[in-house]
């Protein structure tokens, strides 16, 4: 009982931290670039050109700092996902291994968001300035971001959000049900090992579809796109498994309609 009183609050604290970080990430990647205005991107007439920016020490320093923050996050996220590190964390934290990983990832992402240095005077790759683009492009981006985040939340629920956050592992352990992954089929386990980021396409939409792509946003979008792409290793077996699962779900959804037709 004492053991459970420690495990459950620890897992809940990790979950709350991750959930709050996710909300902040929505603000950082969507609300900030879509609603930031002059404060976020600066006066268009005061911006430097690309050549001048790449010779400006302040711009290069900010880019180097942002790059270091991204590498810190990517390094933490990848290193702690290795089997060696998982085994080491499990040795000292037991069933809280996933919760520890989630909490550390949330803290690393918090550092990226809190200490990120925007470059309002830097160049932009594209920008909607003239009518009607200045009205319709931000609106279109806003709609696409809403759709992308709704899809992301839906996919997380399908992939068992409680298990992704480490809550289900603690719940099963306290009730003596064993490890949740042990109940999954070998094909499902194989898929999870290859598909580290199930919301890759939707995140790419959020990262790139913005009315103004500043130089620091370009760095963020490019490096995270590269990381998301390298983290995937789906093959024909995985795609076949996904196709079978989709067909089963569609069949289950169509059953009540078949019954009503009869």
UniProtKB/TrEMBL annotation:
It is a multi-pass membrane protein. It is found in: Nucleus inner membrane. One of its GO terms (cellular component) is nuclear inner membrane. Keywords: Membrane, Transmembrane, Transmembrane helix. It comes from the Eukaryota. InterPro entries: Nurim-like. The chain crosses the membrane at residues 59-79, 100-116, 136-159. Belongs to the nurim family. This is Nurim. The lineage of its organism: Eukaryota, Metazoa, Chordata, Craniata, Vertebrata. The gene is Nrm.
């Amino acid at each position: 009982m004492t053991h459970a009183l420690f495990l459950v609050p620890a897992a809940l604290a990790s979950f709350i931290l991750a959930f709050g970080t996710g909300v902040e990430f929505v603000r950082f990647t969507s609300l900030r670039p879509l609603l930031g205005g002059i404060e976020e991107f600066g006066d268009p007439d005061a911006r430097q050109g690309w050549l001048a920016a790449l010779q400006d020490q302040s711009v290069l320093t900010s880019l180097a700092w942002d790059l270091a923050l991204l590498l810190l996050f990517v390094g933490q996220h990848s290193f702690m996902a290795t089997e060696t590190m998982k085994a080491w964390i499990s040795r000292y934290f037991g069933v809280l291994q996933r919760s520890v990983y989630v909490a550390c990832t949330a803290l690393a992402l918090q550092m990226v968001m809190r200490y990120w240095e925007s470059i309002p005077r830097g160049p932009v790759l594209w920008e909607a300035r003239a009518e009607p683009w200045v009205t319709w492009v931000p609106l279109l981006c806003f709609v696409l971001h809403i759709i992308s985040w709704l899809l992301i939340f839906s996919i997380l629920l399908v992939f068992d959000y409680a298990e992704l956050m480490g809550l289900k592992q603690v719940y099963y352990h306290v009730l003596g049900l064993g490890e949740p992954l042990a109940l999954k089929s070998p094909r499902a386990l194989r898929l999870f090992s290859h598909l580290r980021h199930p919301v890759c396409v939707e995140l790419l939409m959020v990262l790139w579809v913005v009315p103004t792509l500043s130089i620091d946003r370009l760095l963020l979008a490019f490096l995270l796109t590269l990381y998301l792409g390298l983290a995937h290793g789906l093959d024909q077996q995985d795609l076949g498994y996904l196709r079978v699962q989709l067909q089963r779900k569609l069949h289950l959804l169509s059953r009540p309609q078949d019954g009503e037709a009869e």
